[in-house]
Amino acid sequence: MSENGMFESARRDPAKKARSSADRTQLQTVLLRFSRHRPAMISLFILVLIVLFAFVGPFLWMWDHTVYREIPSNQPPSGTHPLGTSAAGHDVLGQLMRGAQQTLKVAFTVSLVSTAVGSLWGATAGYYGGRVDALMMRVVDIFLIVPLLVAAAAIAGNSGAGTNWAAIALIIAIFSWASIARVVRGVVLSLREQEFVEAARASGASAPWIILRHLLPNAAGPIIVAATLLVAVAILAEAGMSFLGLGIQLPDISLGQMIGSARTAVSTRPWLFYPPGVLLVLICLTINFIGDGLRDALDPRQSKVRR
User: Which SUPFAM superfamilies match (predicted)?
Assistant: First the structure.
């Protein structure tokens, strides 16, 4: 290659890199940033393993969480029962799979319901502003000052919803959406005067269309982060309710119920207490690290992910 050819090639390379960077979609940029966040990637891998353990494991394990009559009770970990057996003769590993499954189902349901309700409520308040905003945010303030665990446990105790995980999830969601509503409302307040919103108004678009089509998609970053962190909050809330005997109850089971049932046997039968306790902490830690990774990846001001 001639000297002029080499010079031209070197001069075109920066332009080619610039075009490649410009062609990269926002989603690809977010995924790239998230993939470089090592704690978040490790946590995501661990969480996937936990989900597989909870939802696929019961189909592969020989002992169902409901089987107890043909199993010796209070047995320490062994080859047949790697995590031992309970006082009633249940296989602890089988119970752990079912408990993790029910806890995760409650947490993910709470996150989805609370995110949907909170996003619509906050976006509506932020878009209309004025008296509508003031009234709607007073409702949010009321829900925020009510202790989540106390209120949810009180309703669950009076309604007898402990045998239905969906009912427990709905009760927790009733007192969880307000935090997301406040986040979304703050974002929408900063977006509603933007040019693309003004253009939509000028074209005759209705308020619901503007909220659903323009405002909420542009608030997706904070919503995703808040929804992710809400999973951990829901897990702890369900665990607290079950620990108090007001959450998921027998014949079903959850991690919180397993911890509550074994709290008096920590020193004598530790295999009943520590597996669900460690798994509960591990799930919450992985969720928080994933939330940190999403926050960093979705932050438009961030040019370099913390390593």
Answer: MetI-like
